[in-house]
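WARN no homologs supplied; continuing
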Amino acid sequence: MLCFLCHLLEHVVFVLFLTVVLHAWYHYGVYGAAGVLLKAIQAVPGVKTVVHAVLSGEVKNMTQQVKAGESGASPRPPKITLPEKGVVY
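OK structure emitted
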């Protein structure tokens, strides 16, 4: 009996979530639905910590590549070069 209730609750939660996503898609388009999905993923415990750790690692890697290219320490040119005066639009 308990397994049946858990299974039923799982389906009810999924249908409610799907209803919210489809409502956002209908009223706000793909970007609205994507926003709802991203907010739901961010609400899962531990996701913000993992995302922060991955982004911190990527930033460290990029700054090392840029610094190595500026100092001339690496034999290859850097994959990313930063403009001296910024980007002109």
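The mean pLDDT is 84.
OK
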